[in-house]
Fold this protein.
Amino acid sequence: MSTTEVLLQQLITGLSNGMIIALIALGYTMVYGIIELINFAHGDLFMLGGFLALTIVGMLGLDATTGNATTFVAVGGLVAISAIFCGSLNWTIDRLAYKPLRRAPKLAPLVSAIGVSFVLMNIGLFWGGLPMDVFSDGVAAAAPKDFPALASNKNLLGEASDIRFTVKELMVLVITVPLMIGLTMYVKYTRTGKAMRAVAQNPIAAQLMGIDVNRVIGTTFIIGGALGGAASVIYSLYNNTIHFQMGYRAGMDAFTAAVLGGIGSLPGAMLGGLLIGLVRAMSDQYIEARWTNAVVFTILILILIFRPSGLLGARLREKV
Amino acid sequence: MSRWAQSRASWLKPDFVFLAVALVIPVLDLILPGFLQIGSQMRQIFLFAILGLGLNIVTGFTGLLHLGVAAFMAIGVYAFAILSSEIYPFRFGFWGALALTPVVGALAGLLLGAPTLRLRGDYLAIVTLGFGEIVQDVLRNVETVTKGTQGINPLPYPNVFGYEFVTETYQPWYFLFLGIVVLVVALNRNIENSRLGRAFISVREDELAATCMGINTVKIKLVAFALGAALCSLAGGLWASYLGSTGEPGNYDFQVSILAVCIVIVGGMGNISGVLLGALVMIGIDSLVLVQLTRYLQQQGLSSTANVMSMPNNWKYMIFGLALVLMMRFKPEGLLPSRRVKAELHHDEPPKPADRLCPNCGYPTGTSTVCTECGATVAASS
C-alpha cells in the first residue's frame, strides 16, 4: 500500500468510527444543553444497548451465514429495539436519580450520574453471565463477548482494491446519517424541538411561556438515550466485540467529541465525533495505538482549558 | 459548659473512638487468631483513609470535585519506587523516599492545577479524570523508566530502629500505617482550624464572596490541590513499600478514584471523622465483607465462579454506585456530616432567622425584632 492509500484507509476507518462516536456524543450534548449535567452514565447505557442487541441476536440465532434480506430486517429491528430500550431506561434513570436533584448544588447530579454509571456497568457484568450461547454459557462473565458479523467484511470497491470500504462501513453510513438528519429536523421544525431549544436557552422563561419543562427534559433523555442505543448496535456490528466496560472508553471519546464541537451544540457534537474518530485513526496509524487514549484525553484537557466553548459552541459567560 | 466538660467531650470525638478501635484490633487478632483476617486487611482501610483525607481537602473543604486521585497515588507509588529502588541511582531508602514522595506529588498537583483550576466545577472534574487516564497511559508506555506493566521491584522495606519489616508479620505495618494516619489526621485538623482552612471553606461556600473578602481563590485552590495531591502520593508511597513493588499501572485506575470519592461522600464531605468512617465502611465492605462473604459462600457451595451473580464480590460496583446515588438523593451531607455542609445542603428546608423578612418593607431582619430599615415590629423568632 502506498502512503496515500494508507491515509485514505485511515480516513475511512476514522470517519466510520467517528459517525458512531458522534451518535453517542449527541446524547451527552443534548442533556448538557438542557440541564447542564455531564451524564456520566450515558456511555454505560450505550454498553447495555449492545448487550441487549447481542441477547436478541442469540435468541434469534442470527450469525454471519444468515441471508441478506433477513439480516437487513434484523439489523433494522435491533436498532429500533435497542433505541427504545435505551431511551426508556435513560428516562427512568433521570426520574429516579437526577430529577430529585434539580435544585441541589450542581455537582450533586454529576456524582449521582457517576454512581448510575457504576450500577449499569455492574448490570452489564451480570448480563454477560447469562447462560446463553452468545455469552459462552455464562462462563467468564467479565470477558469480552463476540458479536456475530451480521454485516460482512466484503469489500465494495472490489476484492482487488487495496483500500477497503466494506459493507460494514456502508451500514454505519446508512444508519447514522438519516438519524442525524432526522434529529436535526426534529429539533428545528417540531413543536417539541422548539420547546427543547427554548428550555436550553432559559428554563425559567420557557416555563413562563407555558412549556412543561420536566416533560421536555424527559423527552431529551429519551432521544439522547435512543441515539445511544442505536449507536450501540452499529458499534457492535462494526467492531464485532462488546465488553461490559466498553461504555467508559466510548463514553469518554464521545464526551470529548461533544466538548470539542461545543457542548450543547448538535452540529458541534456531529463534527466533534467525526474529528475524534479521525484523530483516533491517525494516532493509531502515525503515533502508536497505545498512545491513542492519551492523545484523546490531552485534546479534551487542552480544549477545556483554552476554548471551553468548543469549535461551534456559543461563548457563554458564567452567570453569577 | 465547663472546661472539664469540654475536654471530656473532645475525648469522645469520633477520631479518638476510631483510634481506640484501631488499637484494640491487633489485640483481638492475637486473642482470636485469624478472626476474619481483620488485622491484615486494616492496612487497606488506613491507606484509603489517607487517600480520602487528601481528597477531602480538595473536595470536602474546597468544594472541587476531583476524579483523579488515583493518578496522584500512582505518582506517589512510582516516585517512591524510583527514589528508593536499587536499579535507580537515588537509593534514598525507605524513610528518605517516603519523605520526598509527597513533595513530588505536590509538584505534580501544582503542574496539573495551575492551568486548570480556573475552570468551572464539572469541567474541572473531567480534567482531573482525563489526567488520571493520561498518567496511567504514560506509566504503562514509558517503559524505559517505569518498566511498563511489569512494574518496578523490589522496593526496600522500612527499618525502624534496626527492626526490619517483613511481609509475613502484619503488626509492624499495621502500626506504621496507623501512625501515619494519625499524623495525617492531626495535619488535617490543624489545617481545618487555620486561616488556610477557613479560606478553603469560604471558596467552597461562595467563590465570589471569598474573592470580595480578599481571598485569592485561584491561589487557595492551588494550595488545596497541592496538599491533596501530596497526601494521595504519600498513600501511594506507603502502598508501594508494602507491596514491595509498584504493581501494574492499571491498578491505579478510575475505579480507585471513584472509591475515594465514595469514601468522602458516604462519610461526610468536609468532615475529617466522616472520611475516616467512610474509609472504614466502604473499604470494609470492599475488601473485608465481600471477600469473606464470597469465601464463606463458596465453602458452603452457595456461590461459584460459574454463576457471576452468586459471587458477592461481583456486586461491588453496584454497591459503590448505589452508595453514590442514594447518598446524593437522601443524605448528601454524609453519614457523619460536617455542620456547615449540612446547613448548606438543607438550606431550603428550615427557614433560618436571617432569612426572615420585614412584613412591612421586605428588608431582611435577621434575629432582630425591630426592622432596621423601617422600624416596624417584626414577630419574635419562634
